[in-house]
Specification:
Helix content is 26%, strand content 20%. The protein is of the alpha+beta class and 270 residues long. It has a six-stranded mixed beta barrel. It is globular, with a radius of gyration of 19 Å. The termini are close together. Residues 26-227 form the Glycosyl hydrolases family 45 active site domain. It holds the Pfam family Glyco_hydro_45. InterPro entries: GH45_Enzymes (IPR052288), Glyco_hydro_45 (IPR000334), RlpA-like_sf (IPR036908). Belongs to the glycosyl hydrolase 45 (cellulase K) family.
Length: 270
């Protein structure tokens, strides 16, 4: 009976968190492959401006959005190095993510912005406003926002090709992600800021959980990507960058945590 109750409660969690694909819970991660972001193609969203800006190997803007990715497509388009996260203060950051929301599609999330409120792994009380610039397909059954921050394993060899490297600086020892802040100093100068962020602000946390809700994109992010959707005015801006998490975020985080803990307790009380 307890197992059945847990299943019912988890189903309730799923319904509450679905909220028309605009709000919910999920997990975050880190990635950086130097490749052309998936949301840099013209057909991936309803653009008011243009898709996510891409760059040439020398990091100068590439204005032809039909150019293929330098990762396995024979093209010359890379991610622009300014699409790294940065901290505004100890509890608030901006960034760009590789996004996947089950039941939605790239046309829904590409260049959409989301407020993330972290729930665990030492990041409680911290939040980000992120713009979905890429798409992640690691696990299509879960909502994932992968923050683009240098220092991860370069699966596509994009960074190695871009910087004519054997990968040592990007992969760490034996192909692993970088594990300590000082390792960031081995990266090209252009990638060090985002790598330091992952240790200084994100605490190199392993896939922390968060709540998310779609918000109107701030100029701080759209100035970087140049990408603005034509449905932006349907959404409210987030609270100020120096504010505590919104009442929505606090209540939603509390509800998320309470429901998950209750489901877990039922599952173990067989």
């Amino acid at each position: 009976m307890a197992v059945l109750q847990a299943i019912v409660l988890l189903a309730t969690v799923s319904r509450v968190f679905a909220a028309d694909k605009l709000t919910g819970t999920g997990s975050t991660g880190l990635y950086w492959d130097c490749c052309k972001p998936s949301c840099s193609w013209t057909e991936k969203g309803p653009w008011l401006t243009h898709p996510v800006q891409t760059c040439k190997k020398d990091d100068s803007p590439l204005n032809d959005f039909t150019v293929g990715s330098a990762c396995g497509q024979g093209g010359t388009a890379f991610v622009c190095n300014n699409q790294q996260p940065w901290a505004v203060n100890d509890t608030f950051s901006y960034g760009f993510t590789s996004t996947f929301i089950p039941g939605a599609s790239e046309f829904d999330w590409c260049c959409s912005c989301y407020e993330l409120n972290f729930l665990n792994n030492g990041l409680e009380g911290k939040r980000m406003i992120v713009q979905a610039s890429n798409t992640g397909y690691d696990d299509p059954s879960r909502t994932i926002f992968g923050v683009g921050a240098p220092g991860e394993k370069d699966y596509a060899n994009g960074c190695m090709d871009r910087y004519d490297s054997d990968g040592g600086g990007f992969l760490g020892k034996e192909g692993r992600p970088l594990t300590k802040r000082s390792d960031c100093e081995a990266l090209p100068k252009a990638l060090q800021q985002g790598c330091f962020w992952r240790f200084d602000w994100f605490l190199d946390a392993y896939k922390p959980n968060m709540t998310f809700r779609r918000v109107k994109c701030p100029k701080a992010l759209t100035d970087v990507t140049g990408c603005i959707r034509n449905d932006e005015d349907k959404f409210n801006a987030s609270a100020g960058t120096n504010a505590a998490p919104s009442s929505y975020g606090e209540s939603f985080s509390l509800l998320a945590t309470s429901l998950i803990l209750a489901a877990g307790a039922l599952a173990f009380n067989i």
